[in-house]
Design brief:
The chain is α/β, with parallel strands linked by helices. It has helices spanning 27-37, 58-75, 84-93, 102-114, 125-131, 135-141, 159-174, 191-200, 211-220, 261-271, 294-299, 309-316, 330-346, 351-374; strands spanning 52-53, 79-80, 181-185, 203-208, 226-230, 244-250, 272-285, 321-327, 378-386. 42% of the residues lie in helices and 14% in strands.
Length: 398
């Protein structure tokens, strides 16, 4: 946790800010300026998505380290942009990410191929680094459900409405009914289980690797037929003796990793009744060969690995029939911007605890991710599966 706390090195804000537009800059800065021009971004410009450089080595760092250098130099105050989300979206639309710092991406890809970065030993790291930051912190940023996944904005006007609509959509897609047993793989603070128990009469069991989430979530669900288990999915129900009518996994599959996709689906299959349904809600990438972003891996979600739709289809085909695929990834842009607005509004109460470098890191995380969904570089899928096929066919609820 040390790298996100207030005792980190101070930002580079003491460097003199750049003045005016690009003039006779060094070769690296000229190269960056030429690249950014392809995305209609200007150095020292006045539009919200233009980049203002404060540190003379910023351009060299970005050229050498790509995404990692871009994010780290922002964290340290080396550059700024009024609309970071739009900056990132434009960079991705122009595919500039493929032209700089490719060595870092290659290293990331090699690591993923050679090692199981989501092994049992390493799987707890993301809980400790990210999800255990503090329940009060996430309560301030998220909605009343404490839903830390994409909202459904089809008819919603607020974050609360979007998350309520998402939870209800999942329950309706699963056809939940009173008395059904629901397993939530990667249950977070229990937003889905609480909603399913209260509104659909389901009995719920949730798996999480975050002690903070389990303790806080159990308190939120007091009096409901909801149980949290602090357990890795690979260690759950190994003998297959425990069965559920419905299974959901919402925003957890991104932490499983390609080397463990088979184990994940095997656990889901052995835990689901023959006439059951399984809903997988996950962020995904367009191309399976695309490695994890190095900055996100280092500072936000260690060992994360976004799946492609093809990877999900390949690994699930032995145990499941895919009944429905629903992509509403563009809604994550709006969700992240809503979280960002709440984060900024609440920041004064957390400034002393986390410090300015954490603030810039978290701002970069939320706004850069919004940019990736705006550029359609990332997707959000809800996939409904059944073990043997729904008799007469599955119909997605309206």
């Amino acid at each position: 946790m040390e790298q996100t706390r207030k005792d980190m090195p101070s930002s580079g804000s003491h460097h003199a800010p750049a003045t005016g537009r690009l003039t006779a800059e060094n070769a690296a800065q000229r190269a960056i300026a030429d690249l950014l021009a392809e995305a209609d971004i200007e150095l020292g410009g006045e539009r919200p998505w233009d980049m203002v450089i404060h540190h003379p080595q910023t351009a060299e760092r970005i050229l050498a380290r790509g995404s990692l250098g871009l994010g780290e130099s922002y964290m340290e105050g080396w550059w700024d942009c009024a609309r970071l989300d739009e900056f990132i979206a434009r960079v991705l639309f122009a595919r500039l990410d493929e032209k700089v710092g490719t060595s870092a991406l290659r290293v990331q890809g090699i690591r993923a191929r050679l090692f199981n970065l989501q092994s049992l030993r390493r799987s707890w790291q993301v809980g400790e680094l990210h999800y255990d930051l503090g329940n009060d912190f996430f309560e301030a940023m998220l909605d009343g459900h404490l839903a830390y996944t994409c909202g459904y904005w089809a008819q919603a006007g607020t974050l609360e409405e979007a998350q309520t609509a998402k939870l209800d959509l999942i329950c309706r897609k699963l056809g939940l009914a009173p008395g059904m047993r629901l397993l939530d793989i990667g249950c977070g603070w229990g937003s889905l289980m609480k909603f399913a128990a209260e509104h659909y009469g389901a009995e719920c069991v949730g798996l999480t690797i975050s002690r903070e989430q389990a303790e806080h979530g159990q308190g939120r669900c007091a009096g409901l037929p909801v149980a949290f288990r602090l357990q890795d999915y690979r260690q759950f129900n190994r003998g297959g003796s425990e069965r559920f009518d419905r299974i959901a996994s919402v925003g957890m599959f991104e932490h499983v990793g390609a080397k463990n996709h088979g184990a994940f689906f095997e656990m889901a299959r052995r835990s689901l009744n023959e006439d059951g349904l399984f809903l997988l809600h996950t962020i995904g990438k367009n191309l399976r060969r695309t490695p994890t972003d190095p900055w996100i891996d280092r500072y936000i979600f260690p060992n994360g690995d976004l799946p492609s739709l093809g990877q999900i289809a390949d690994v699930s085909e032995d145990g499941f029939i895919i009944e429905d695929v629903h992509n509403f990834g563009a809604d994550y842009d709006r969700t992240l911007m809503a979280w960002y607005a709440r984060f900024e509004a609440a920041w004064p109460q957390f400034a002393a605890r986390y410090g300015e470098r954490f603030r810039r890191m978290w701002r970069y995380y939320l706004l850069a991710c919004a940019g990736t969904f705006r550029a359609r570089s990332n997707q959000l899928w809800q996939i409904v599966m059944s073990p043997r096929g729904v008799a007469g066919g599955y119909r997605r609820p309206g």
